[in-house]
Amino acid sequence: MWWRGTVTAARSRTWMPVSAWAVTRAALLLTLFGALRFPGADVRPDVVVIYHGWYERLLTGSFPVHDVTWQYPPAAAAVFLAPALLPFLTYSHAFYLLACAADATVLAMLLRAGRAHGRDLAGAWLWVAGVAVLGPLALARYDVVVTALAVAALQAAARHPRVAGALAAIGALVKVWPVLVLAGARPGRTTRRSWGAALVTAVGVSAAFLAFTRGPFAFLTEQRQRGVEIESLGALPFHVLRLLGLWHGTSRLHYGSFEFLGPYVPTAARIALAGAVLAFCWLVWWRVRARTFSDVVLYDAAFAAVLVFVTTSRVISPQYLIWLLGLGALCLTTRSTVQRRPVLLILAACLFTVLEFPVGFGQVVRSDLPGIVVLLIRDGLLLVATVSACRRLWRSTASRPEAPPDDAASSSEADYQVAHTG
User: Transmembrane region positions (predicted)?
Assistant: First the structure.
């Protein structure tokens, strides 16, 4: 029968990204297990040394108070304790496998979203390719777990806003930024339910940590003297001036990452903080002015909001690109997204991110010309993507554009209906 051929073809198309995921993730795991070698700096010490040290401390019921490398909300403890679920493996091997399971969960959600929105697999392919490009780092940090929570919250938002709010709150208590995924929630009952559930969940979980653990929120007061991470947008002037011999500060390991320390760095950190505040103000202003809300707008707004805060941050660690890949991939599961071009810019930024870390990290630390060029391109791509994403979100929801964005012009009204009824 003809429909059997259609179903078979659809399944065949679905298995293509799944097969690509299996091959690329096997390579990443083999690298992390030591069977293969990835060029550049070793990405494993964070898990083998730092995460494992936290794990042993957390088992006592206490958070790593006074440990300057601990910079995370209390629910992050669950991620670092999770390898205990696989006691027959070493801590690091268990962590990598659990991160890979979270990676697979994100892919499954993207495939489901793509099927709901007209069998569009662009989002799944972006996730498969983007994480593969980032290399073994993607499975040697816990950000893929946080991304899974954020994507799950967005997936649940349309039909189960309370569930979405709870997932966003749990994500925020793991690494703060997932609270931004609710920025584009529909006004009225959906917003009240999702944000109300988020507030109740956050208060309840926080109270539990305060009652049964020691020092769950100590991290809030232990990062006041942070500098500017050498990979951030605000670090670029220091790299250039250092190369030219016009700035005589230093770059060294500080608060768990390499930062610039020296003259004018505190000023740059304050400018970055001011940029983040302005970004928040813009987001609130967009929310007030927006007139169009839908499932697609929810995805587009989440991507734009997180992208703005990543770009304005004084810390742009390579693993932050995982967040943007997950949210960007979700945007691509709908044909009527306005974020297609910014998402593709993020994919390009992933390539230069892996060239910056781990491949050429020594050159970045020393402010050598090749390292500066790679970093300039990567951060430039993030900046252009940010401006483009915000402009497109504003034009599609808060103003009356004369014409749709270039990469959305081909979407027909039928496509729009498909994307909103999946």
Answer: 125-151, 163-183, 195-215, 267-285, 297-314, 320-338, 345-365, 371-390
Strand partners, 250: 261
Which tokens hold the place of 307?
A: 């992208």
**Which residue stretches of the chain have pLDDT < 70?**
1-12, 118-119, 222-225, 400-422
Q: Give the whole-angstrom CA distance, residue 72 versus residue 143.
A: 12
Q: What gap in Å lies between CA 146 and CA 167, rounded to an integer?
A: 10
Q: How far is residue 52's CA from residue 69's CA, in Å, rounded to a whole number?
A: 13
Q: What domain count does the chain have?
A: 1
103 domain residue, yes or no:
yes
- Please state the pTM of the whole predicted model: 0.91
Cα 184 from Cα 302, distance rounded (Å) = 7
Residue 221 lies in a domain: no
Tell me which amino acid residue 11 is: R
Range of the domain at 42: 16-212+226-401+410-421
In a domain, 6, yes or no: no
Question: At 195, which amino acid appears?
Answer: W
In a domain, 218, yes or no: no
CA distances from 220 to 18, 135, 200, 217, 355 (A): 40, 31, 21, 6, 32
DSSP alpha helix (H) spans, 76-121: 76-81, 91-116
Tens of pLDDT, residues 395-412: 999 876 444 444 443 333
